[in-house]
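Milestone M4 deliverable, item 7.
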Amino acid sequence: MILDKINQAGDIRKLKESEYEELAREIRRFLIKKISTTGGHLASNLGVVELTMALHLVFDPSKDKIVWDVGHQSYTHKILTGRRSGFDELRKYGGMSGFPKRKESQCDPFDTGHSSTSISAGMGLAMARDRKKEKYSVISVIGDGALTGGMALEALNNVSSLNSNYIIILNDNGMSISRNTGGISEHLSKIRRTSAYYDLKEHVTDQLEKVPGVGKTVLDALIHVKNNVKKIFVPGMLFENMGITYWGPVDGHDVKGLVTVLENAKRLKKPVLIHVLTKKGKGYRPAEEYPERFHGVSPFDIRTGQVIQKKTEPDWTDVFSKTICEAARNNRNIVAITAAMPDGTGLTPFAREFPGRFFDAGIAEQHAVTFAAGMAAGGLKPVVAVYSSFLQRAYDQIIHDVCIQNLPVVFAVDRAGLVGSDGETHQGIFDLSYLSHIPNMTVCAPKNVYEFQDMLNYAFTYSCPIAIRYPRGTGWKGLARFRQPIAAGEAEWIYDESEIALLAVGSMVETAVEVRSRLKEMGYHVSLVNMRFVSPIDDRCLAKAVRNHSLLVTLEENVLKGGFGEHVCTWLEDDRSRVDIINVAVPDMYVEHGNVDLLKKEIGLDADFILKRILERIGEQE
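Output delivered:
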């Protein structure tokens, strides 16, 4: 097997050209087999096999810097840099990451995980190279979906200031996660339809260069009218008008052709963008036909393409999807906004039922939030559905455009807390901190799916900015009989006793139920409060807890700094209360990838560790 010859970076350059095609087939078979077992990003990786091979044939990844935007398409890069054995533990705790990681390999020059960052990072690396007078190539690989992000456009606008070689690969498969939308996408579609222009140009150039004596002179003359001809055939000339040399489109599945283009680009003394056309999911029919489904996929049956373990219970996203659709039928002002994640956020059913009230802003969270603010100022009720880790990209817009004006935007913050396999860049463990200190922002979290429905319906009629955070996974149905009406800043006493008070937020109420049960078995009196609101905090609830308990325990799936527990500590200090307190939260660290239950155990968010802390503190008191 040819793949057996690839054991470290550079080994691909020892192969014969006749072996390239078979290597590509073997890589695809390997990826399909491994990801069918572990889960992971499949379609995007199948689409860049030949492109990655060409990059490794032309460049030395141990010296040259290849920056993968988002990074979920870097699996072939990992194979070609000697990490094939790591795929058995892909995205598992302690195993290989699904994204590029500097600490994992010297062939990963920059950590990625969020979209639209590679051009800025690549330009920074190129500038550092030039300032230090070092010799290496810098290549940023960015998808057409990521190019819709404002950060990518800001970087493109700045790239022309470089007076040295820098290569941008535009991997154009017509998709981000879902189908691309917007002006950039349409521009690229037009370019794809003008391939005939490039074929004609290459043919004329080749023929003229063969004419002795006069061919070069005629060719030089033609260069003077080149730009005018381009403007006729290529709509917009977006990249060249920004001062970046544009080459393409080129076939992203032709290794030899790509190698030729990359070798030529490597010799330029200025920035160049190479427009590469690829097919997402290439080589595996189910992924080709349903690339959205195979973007990030759970373990699946290779023969059928069907996920092996289908969910039997609705997850939190399903509950959001159903509830917003029901509310929109009765309120025509409700509109929904996503940043290129209609499937992931559960808005696809809404888009089908209310196409005129659904808006996909592309990979542009900042724009999505201010767009929502504008609609709210115009009298609509916008709902921004977004993952917690992606919402942090729009922090300024939340403050400046929504909260200062106190506009009634609803933020449905999905994937809050630990999300597992995607690791540090995707854990939603900062939102309570970065949202709860913003004036005019109401921040809440439901204990179960029933309260989630109530919170959403409350938010749809709320007159101020409000964020509802909810976790990934199956929606919890515990404590169903406790369903008090939602009122801003009002907590819910589930069990009202004395001695120990468990003050839990959102997903941690389920854990608190287990902790309380075990403490009760030991003979302790334990209250359990579903805090529901982190901002505004329930002052009366805290005052009652201080009066009747000697130990307060706050529980949240958020980092400690700036989180709910610290807010309670501040309240106690202001109140001059002398009650003992334990803050249970995510340690102030970046949590790596792995199974969520295992991660909770490792960082001290599981019932066993919380119980141990409580008993130790009680022992100290005694």
